[in-house]
């Protein structure tokens, strides 16, 4: 004779309640052969369900030995016990324990999904089982659209899904009326006749009478064990073992797909909650993207401004530094300095500058202007461009011509009707009549007041006609492309120190300014990124919070999934995927919101643009799923660690 199917020896199960422990099962010795139909009866609280849970590997005894087909359960891992539940046992509960979000067919399929069976195979079998139990017309009904008896049939079909050598039914008729109870019992008897071992827990002697062996327990001990008729020869149930079962990475992909589908169903069942959870991520991702785009936009603008600083130049001023009060009185920076600098190899071009303010008058129009006296190379040095006319040349500078180049603002002030007749017109600057020979093109610049009116005259003319003073405001040197700015700076400083005998000047170089601005923008970008990351973390904590609540709320569902054979890793996977899906969908929505905002913003604020880089979008996408993984892990793990019995009791 082969090993008996189920053997319990000296099984004891204690529950801790605070300080004391309570023995729900005291010393159970029991052998159940394959093919038996056993009823376990006893008063409420006598330990029937506790025994049933141990039999079904949902729970473990405190002490004693339980062997299934000769194999001890004590040494098994949780996954091995889950495999046993899934492949060898079928549970039927008093309260059916169907999943509300799934229809009858989908509920029946769950054990086969965890068993890794292909969609076609499991759908076929689920339909067959349901039809056989008279539920063929209600495949697509949800549990709340079914009567108690119908729900119990669905749960019987689910228990049979993977074969169920042993059917464990805990008060299967407890919630049903007499007639439906009778029908359910008939089904169980039929299944037994086909070879399934059936164990029914009941407190109803009428139900127990259908069994061929009745075990009575009281206060955690077996008090009676009688057979009403001899056990028929065990028949081997026709089990679809391994039918349509997939293995390897294909199975992994399929199980991943199933978990994703379950996650979508769960999200759909709690639409508002899912949406509110996503909202945190949507706002987080959208604001991060907008802020980064804003940073990018302002950066581009700053870079444009920097390029407007002109080519790489040194500008030498009198005084020790900006704001030196004596600089106005220091008259040491003179034309000879400019000429000396001009001779140096590092200088590509040099221009002295002087400046004063004056008025410009044309007909009845009068305006205050900044008069810049510059050399002929000034425009080369600064990279200024003309929209009309020409610059003055070296000859003009030498001969103190009264020719003026006006800027765009001045031109608009003097010629509001257009510049058609501007070139050649004589204007009065102060008391000096000057002929307009050129108009500069507007330079986009964030620095300096772009509203001010500026005109350019040869510095010789300004010195002679306006200032009567040979001192210069500054000397601007355009550094030769081949010379590093630092070297030019040192050389210029050395030269002027020699000429002046002391350092009564200071040098500004655009390279420094450029670097300062660039590093400022970079610091700003870093700050922005930090804020962005914080807001995303806040969103992630929101996801974690909701997922934790969701785990508590869905404890029973998790218990059911474990009872029908879901492994801890399956539960972990399902909740993780759900968290990742929520954050991923939230991330995509956030990206769309940000892009939409960008379109509106760019349309409304033409001066400034939000620039979305593809990289930031890809990063946002990746980061949002990472948040799901990181913040979904804790809730998913707490779901996976739930005790199946306790979870089911919810
Ligand atoms: P029943 O025969 O009604 O199914 P149970 O097996 O559910 O009885 O419970 C047997 C006894 O064990 C009861 O007194 C019950 O209070 C106790 N019990 C069951 N589960 C737990 C638990 N998780 N913690 C503490 N006591 C429990
Ligand atoms: Mg019970």
Automatic annotation (TrEMBL):
Chain ranges of the ABC transporter domain? 6-244
One Pfam family name is ABC_tran
- The molecule here is called Pyoverdine export ATP-binding/permease protein PvdT
Q: How does it sit in the membrane?
A: Multi-pass membrane protein
Instruction: Give a yes or no for keyword Transcription in this entry.
Output: no
Keyword entries, A-Z: Antibiotic resistance, ATP-binding, Cell inner membrane, Cell membrane, Membrane, Nucleotide-binding, Translocase, Transmembrane, Transmembrane helix, Transport
Provide the GO MF annotations for this entry.
ATP binding; ATP hydrolysis activity; transmembrane transporter activity
Q: Which Gene3D superfamilies match?
A: P-loop containing nucleotide triphosphate hydrolases (3.40.50.300)
GO biological process annotation, one example? response to antibiotic
- Which cell locations does it reside in? Cell inner membrane
Organism lineage: Bacteria, Pseudomonadati, Pseudomonadota, Alphaproteobacteria, Hyphomicrobiales
**Residues annotated as signal peptide:** none
Broad class of where this protein is predominantly found: membrane
């Amino acid at each position: 004779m082969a090993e008996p199917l189920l053997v319990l020896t000296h099984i004891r199960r204690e529950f801790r309640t605070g300080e004391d422990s309570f023995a729900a099962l005291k010393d159970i010795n029991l052998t159940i052969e394959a093919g038996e139909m056993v009823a376990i009866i006893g008063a409420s609280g006598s330990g029937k369900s506790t025994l049933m849970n141990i039999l079904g590997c949902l729970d473990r005894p405190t002490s004693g030995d339980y062997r299934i087909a000769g194999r001890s359960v004590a040494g098994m891992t949780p996954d091995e016990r889950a495999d046993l539940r899934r492949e060898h046992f079928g549970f039927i509960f008093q309260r059916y324990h169907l999943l509300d979000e799934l229809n009858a067919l989908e509920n029946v399929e769950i054990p086969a999904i965890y068993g890794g069976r292909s969609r076609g195979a499991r759908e076929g079998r689920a339909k067959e089982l349901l039809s056989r139990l008279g539920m063929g017309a209600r495949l697509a009904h949800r549990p709340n659209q079914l009567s108690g008896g119908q729900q119990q049939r669905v749960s019987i079909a689910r228990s049979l899904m993977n074969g169920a050598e042993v059917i464990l039914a805990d008060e299967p008729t407890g919630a049903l009326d007499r007639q439906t109870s009778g029908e359910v019992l008939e089904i169980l008897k039929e299944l037994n006749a086909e070879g399934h071992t059936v164990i029914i827990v009941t407190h109803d002697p009428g139900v127990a009478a259908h069994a061929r062996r009745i075990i009575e327990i009281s206060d955690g001990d077996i008090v009676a064990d009688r057979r009403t008729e001899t056990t028929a020869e065990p028949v081997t149930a026709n089990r679809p073992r391994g039918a349509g079962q997939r293995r390897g990475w294909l199975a992994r992909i399929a199980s991943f797909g199933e978990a994703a589908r379950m996650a979508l169903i769960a999200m759909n069942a709690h639409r508002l909650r899912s949406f509110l959870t996503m909202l945190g991520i949507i706002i987080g991702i959208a604001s991060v993207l907008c802020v980064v785009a804003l940073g990018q936009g302002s950066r581009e603008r700053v870079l444009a401004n920097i390029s407007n600083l002109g080519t790489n130049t040194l500008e030498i001023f009198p005084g020790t530094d900006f704001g030196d009060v004596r600089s106005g009185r220091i008259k040491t920076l003179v034309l000879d300095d400019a000429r000396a600098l001009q001779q140096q190899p590092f200088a590509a071009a040099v221009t002295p500058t002087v400046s004063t303010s004056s008025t410009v008058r044309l007909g009845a129009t009068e305006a205050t202007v900044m008069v810049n006296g510059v050399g002929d190379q000034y425009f080369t040095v600064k990279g200024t461009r003309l929209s009309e006319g020409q610059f003055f040349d070296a000859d003009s500078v030498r001969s103190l011509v009264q020719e003026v180049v006006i800027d765009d603002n001045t031109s608009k002030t003097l010629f509001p009707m257009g510049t058609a007749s501007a070139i050649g017109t004589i204007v009065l600057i102060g008391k000096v009549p000057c002929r307009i020979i050129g108009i500069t093109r507007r330079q986009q610049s964030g620095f300096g007041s772009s509203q001010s009116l500026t005109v350019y005259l040869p510095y010789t003319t300004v010195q002679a006609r306006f200032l009567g003073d040979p001192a210069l405001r500054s000397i601007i040197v355009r550094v030769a492309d081949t010379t590093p700015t630092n070297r030019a700076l040192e050389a210029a400083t050395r030269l002027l120190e020699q000429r002046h005998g002391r350092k009564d000047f200071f040098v500004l170089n655009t390279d420094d300014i450029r670097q300062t601005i660039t590093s400022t923008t970079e610091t700003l970008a870093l700050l922005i990124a930090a804020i962005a990351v914080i807001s995303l973390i806040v969103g992630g904590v929101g996801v974690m919070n909701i997922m934790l609540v969701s785990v508590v709320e869905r404890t029973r569902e998790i218990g059911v999934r474990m009872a029908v054979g879901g492994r801890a890793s399956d539960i972990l996977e399902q909740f993780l995927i759900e968290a990742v899906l929520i954050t991923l969908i939230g991330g995509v929505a956030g990206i769309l919101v940000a892009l939409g905002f960008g379109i509106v913003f760019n349309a409304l604020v033409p001066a400034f643009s939000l620039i979305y880089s593809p990289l930031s979008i890809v990063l946002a996408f990746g980061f949002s799923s990472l948040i799901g993984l990181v913040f979904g892990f804790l809730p998913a793990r707490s779901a996976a660690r739930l005790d199946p019995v306790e979870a089911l009791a919810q």
